[in-house]
Task: structure prediction
Amino acid sequence: MTRHDQYNENVAGRANVEDTPELLAYYDDLKKKGAAALWTVANKIEPWEPRSQSVPMIWRYKDLREDVLRSVDLVTPEKAGRRVIYLDNPGRSDVAAAVGWIYAGLQVMHPGERASAHRHSASAIRFIMEGTGAYTVVDGHKMTLGANDFVLTPNGTWHEHAVASDGSPCIWQDGLDIPLVNALEANFYEVHPDLAQAVTHPVDDMTRTWGNAGLRPGTGAWSKGYSPMFKYEWAPTYEALSGLAETDGSPYDGILMHYMNPVTSGHVMGTLGASMQMLRPGERTRAHRHTGSFLYQVCKGSGHSVINGRRFDWTERDIFCVPSWAWHEHANASATEDACLFCLNDLPVMEKLGLYREEAFGDNGGHQPVHKP
Amino acid sequence: MTRHDQYNENVAGRANVEDTPELLAYYDDLKKKGAAALWTVANKIEPWEPRSQSVPMIWRYKDLREDVLRSVDLVTPEKAGRRVIYLDNPGRSDVAAAVGWIYAGLQVMHPGERASAHRHSASAIRFIMEGTGAYTVVDGHKMTLGANDFVLTPNGTWHEHAVASDGSPCIWQDGLDIPLVNALEANFYEVHPDLAQAVTHPVDDMTRTWGNAGLRPGTGAWSKGYSPMFKYEWAPTYEALSGLAETDGSPYDGILMHYMNPVTSGHVMGTLGASMQMLRPGERTRAHRHTGSFLYQVCKGSGHSVINGRRFDWTERDIFCVPSWAWHEHANASATEDACLFCLNDLPVMEKLGLYREEAFGDNGGHQPVHKP
Amino acid sequence: MTRHDQYNENVAGRANVEDTPELLAYYDDLKKKGAAALWTVANKIEPWEPRSQSVPMIWRYKDLREDVLRSVDLVTPEKAGRRVIYLDNPGRSDVAAAVGWIYAGLQVMHPGERASAHRHSASAIRFIMEGTGAYTVVDGHKMTLGANDFVLTPNGTWHEHAVASDGSPCIWQDGLDIPLVNALEANFYEVHPDLAQAVTHPVDDMTRTWGNAGLRPGTGAWSKGYSPMFKYEWAPTYEALSGLAETDGSPYDGILMHYMNPVTSGHVMGTLGASMQMLRPGERTRAHRHTGSFLYQVCKGSGHSVINGRRFDWTERDIFCVPSWAWHEHANASATEDACLFCLNDLPVMEKLGLYREEAFGDNGGHQPVHKP
Amino acid sequence: MTRHDQYNENVAGRANVEDTPELLAYYDDLKKKGAAALWTVANKIEPWEPRSQSVPMIWRYKDLREDVLRSVDLVTPEKAGRRVIYLDNPGRSDVAAAVGWIYAGLQVMHPGERASAHRHSASAIRFIMEGTGAYTVVDGHKMTLGANDFVLTPNGTWHEHAVASDGSPCIWQDGLDIPLVNALEANFYEVHPDLAQAVTHPVDDMTRTWGNAGLRPGTGAWSKGYSPMFKYEWAPTYEALSGLAETDGSPYDGILMHYMNPVTSGHVMGTLGASMQMLRPGERTRAHRHTGSFLYQVCKGSGHSVINGRRFDWTERDIFCVPSWAWHEHANASATEDACLFCLNDLPVMEKLGLYREEAFGDNGGHQPVHKP
Result:
């Protein structure tokens, strides 16, 4: 017989009702009517603080790269739809998420290949890890992409990825809110009627139009829920971070900049945010925690992060996650070179729904004790 | 051995890769590395359109009322925390939701009883179904409540419910976004240090201050993410609906008004919206469907709704749900009296995240064929 | 010969250049080139604080009413356009303003009369002072009006005023931003091609739709720069003020509410704001001053205001003005009855342009010394 | 005897009342009571369309430069406050404006000179015309400035201008909304207690922090009514315009970009906007007109503009104005070089107050007939 008092807590204001035969009969009766007694689950569904189902973990590029490349021989893009190896957090396998409600995968494409065009309610980014010649078409706008650049394919936009025939094999990280949009039961999917779209604007026109600091085009307006600057490049981002290297920055994040929608200065898309941060030579940040799910990719350098008391060493192209409300801190391993971390997150969701909260780690100079493995 | 090709679709642009021994070995290898092949789940996680896990259903008050009253004898408020029978949608039992990510329960309280004060990241409403003398205290503001009134206890506010000692036994419907806030791993819970709060403002002051059409108080400002008009009363709502009864209204909803935050004219809280609608004598609406989850309570009259082809007859105090993307239409059974439906929903979430979509039912004069039971 | 050093100030950081023959020749030379030396006017155009050109004054209804009524015999509405006596502040005669950039006039209309329909870039209100049967049509919406009600005829809307044939002679106060819009060189004027518009909506529909506290219509949206609640009535306004009579209110204004656009909770129109305030029995407020121009009309009771040290006694229907940055305080003459003041102002302009500033009068318990007349 | 019927128009809906002895006596009587008859001025204060008081004109740099330099010998900065020759539009001499409500002056400063620090409610820009070593300090932030750069000194900020001792004599154009803020009776002025402020941040930090396309700093927020990017430089602006040279641009303005507040993408300050536009080799725009006042400075190249039918030829550093509702079109004189025009305007005021309107010139292929001089 199922127990119904396993969540009891002996604390004033919390449920603490022991099962009795009479109550168990009552519970059975309620069940038949599509109902149940709150006090049997209240302490479970009203936890004192968030306990993420996601496991803090790292995916090392040296482990996965060969598998990703091997997929080229195993499946065709036509059969696979997209040739992607996705990051499958053990705590989130049921929803195919890397962390929280964020999906991520590594996709490989050879020169001359082009995925079929489609659109969906999920929002996506594509962050280039290696290779040349990658490009993406979004609603008729073509963007060329190099390493550490990323492109938006927002909610509802037709999009397709490709590699130019004079390029080299490309690997990139896809990041989407598919799990969230599924959970919210709002995902729609369409294959483009022609399986491909025409490029109807000059190459990189959206970045040329909207990617000028302090300048807004005199013609054209933009009121969609995502950034019109579809592509964000590495070179000016790194230059911007370097230009701030001598400022204090954040004790928890070093020098961090959020990629933004230039029209609103808000996040790049309605459900996904992104940032790039620099850990200066020798920099070790202090620990804090906050709500929201965070997926990091190492763009430059090496170092380690401590997440809920476990140490994860990382180097270029590794990917690791910080689940909601997990303590975390970062350290650059080099005393002479900076390290850079790209981060994909669901901060727009947390902020819009009024659920963002953060807290600093006070003890021990701001550093977590590290568990022995 | 687990199959990995059960989601295959033979459609251009969709995954369609058959299992082979080589691939199965590959999948095993990926699994060890915390990874998996997207094409094995792509068609599952990218559905053509939303398929809600919630079951359309109705909870009839005549079935539940006795059970609710009986809880008074079975458990004390001290032991139970709150004495609530919650609505347990069979498709959402794992998260204790009535529909989608919305929790709802029926709570009973006797004159002179007072629940302990607490606060949480979840947002809540309390909609009075029967009884007199109910009141709620929110951050020191006391609101008195009668039938069909409701009160907000927003995200982060200290709150407690009670019934005055000269009142009668009260039953109300609680509605919360607990399942959503848990899913987003952002729920915090605190019991008030004194288990009760002082009333520090004149009774009903927030409605007197903010509940005046077209008038804003000269002193005081409000920038919180929820309405300062904590209580919404039935009488002026019914009067407003009646005043519009001769306008066209909506073909899908009759005369519908959204309860709003008077400062922004947006929804009453950051994650939950509410509306009241009137079906005029003899009115039968046409079917449409949209994203978002909706929980109705019948405040006045009787009639029926058709949800995804099933007919649900309802009368006063019954509660029924419309899951995301389910076709639905309503009909008033009376040719002489109007019928009124209160509705709690997650429209703020859908709208803020850019996920709201709707569609009219085109065939058959806008009316669904009804399945035989 | 014109002096150019009359604004000199002997203060560090201020211009203090004495005329010399050489300089005067230089100034002459500049003048020919459409130029001049800043230091000759700097102290004039950069005053230490605002000095309003408007004179604080009162227009007593007992003095003006007969003149207003007499206009009926003197001119026809056809010849006059509108039969209005306007308030001509001696400091603002050049722009026909009552105070600052606000125009105001008293208009009279007999039963059965109807002014021709027109529209302009200026925004207007019409505040009823006496009579029955007045109504206004705004973009096809007809509003009926009684004493102390007011109606908006915003920037760009077709509008016309009339009195029903079964009404009585009506007098109302017009208030417009004509002087401002002229000064900004942005005023356009059109006579309606038919000289009258059809009423195309149910009477008072905009107030029935948008004038419900805490309720937003489910159909219809509103994004124009002015309130969709075209009419604001006296009865609910007075009731709202009375409901707050026991709160502290403002030390400078008693119980004051701003009329608001229910969609934004901002001011009723883009350039004009309005408020109603109650001075409780025996209430005497403290003095303060702020930028912006304010035109009061006494709706109920009697009392006095002290403006820049001059006392102005007022009774029902009197109109008085408070110029920008003028000290002012109010007192109710009655120990048993409340007094109510309607106020038309340009706060939207001050606030949008970042020019609002206020200051309390600190000395003498917050009360100005009153000059002997 | 003053006539009161000089504005009569014989048009239905307009005032058309002839003076009679009885009416003149009536007008006299009203005047004594601080009132007047609207119909005597209605047609004047409600014009059919705006008629600007400003005269379209050009200030040629070759005419003014010597005078500006000469001021160095004529007055000291200490005596003059600021050594500025201002542009005195003959139609706006009473308010010391160059056009509409915009003040502009040419200021000269020698190496090692530093103006005293002050602040005021007026907002200002400083646009560098020639010289090296210019810098400005705004609320403790120091900005270095070269030709065609400009800096903001917004409403309420402490600011001071200077030229480094190793620089060269500098001339720049000041642009302020002093006339507007005076007209709105909201101008306050303060001299800094020390006559100079300390530089409390790294040089150019605000541009380094906020002047990165598509990037928002992770620390620090900004909610003031003006741009945190205090300095806008010529080089990236010209690069941005060049990058769009092959797009269509605007038929009226060629390639035009508005300088923007990166936080809101709105105008740089609350009352003043600025733009830079490129006329491509051989480009001749079509005529249009709009409300608002516009002051142009030629940054590069030569050409001409036709304003209300008059042709104004311009070359580098010339300044010309386009009054409200004046027809205007521009032409680049060169078939091989582009020409660039900086423009200071009051668009924020027009837009916020709902007064912006524009109209294309339809006849003659969009080009005005040019009057013989």
Q: What stands out?
A: DSSP finds eight helices and 24 strands in chain A. Residues 1-48 of chain A form one domain. The longest helix of chain A spans residues 61-74. Chain A touches chain B through 100 residues (CB under 8 Å).
